What we know:
Structural class: mainly beta
Number of domains: 1
Radius of gyration: 18 Å
Bound molecules: calcium ion
Amino acid sequence: MCSEQISAMGFRRQSLSRYGCGSGWLALLSLCALSLVACVAPWDPALGRGPCARGCRAQVVQSFPHDPKAFTEGLFLLDGVLYEGTGIEGQSSLRRTHLQSGAVGQAVSLPSDEFGEGIAAAGARIVQLTWKHGRAYVYDVSTLALIDQLSYPTEGWGLSFDGSRFVMSDGSSTLYFRSPDTFAELGRIRVHDGRGFVDHLNELEVINGLIYANVWLTDMIVIIDPQDGAVRGRIGLSDLLPADQRSDREDVLNGIAYDVGSGHLLVTGKRWPALFEIALQEIRD
Ligand SMILES: [Ca+2]
């Protein structure tokens, strides 16, 4: 139903294709503000009660330019500044980006044989995972100077910080909690819904005590209870960026940041030309 609504609306595809929302085009901004991209996996009673338990509609508030060469693997917002970690050997970086323009203000490149993955900030430090090297890089948040390295025994995919622990994914259904100081494992959960374990958990964001996770090779976000690993809600965003604006099947949604001030999500994907500010609206019926 959602896709039909969007097709009928028509203007949404036009406005997104031109990315006018973040460029001062007030007329288009008003259209974007009205755009509902939906959204939903069918309600699963096993989800129980929680955000988006019956699904959410995503209202596009604004869109911003995003580097179409950035293979997004990590994303967070800190003091109004967007931080992004990118992947692919020879192209991996940690970058500080101006949200409104998409311009990269500062970037640090990884060694050419390493594949950058998730990023998260804890206090004055930013940690960046690598995919298969078992190595995380630690940067000073003010200067992005490399100040330390950490290790872990699994692949590295997504990373976020819940205020006391890192939460890390490795492409499986397991999420690991790790010390912000030593990166030692403090615990783990296995993520499941009413149909079984949920594999391929990728980029992460802890929001109001729940873990939002991209699911690899989909445009789906699952909302996870950190106590027991249960999926409490889902957000489907397959209509956010049209297929004809993706260059490869790998170019899926993979980047969740949270704006504490507005309560909105900032989402983008691998090699997406736009980053979207979205407000979630619960579907209750
Ligand atoms: Ca994130």
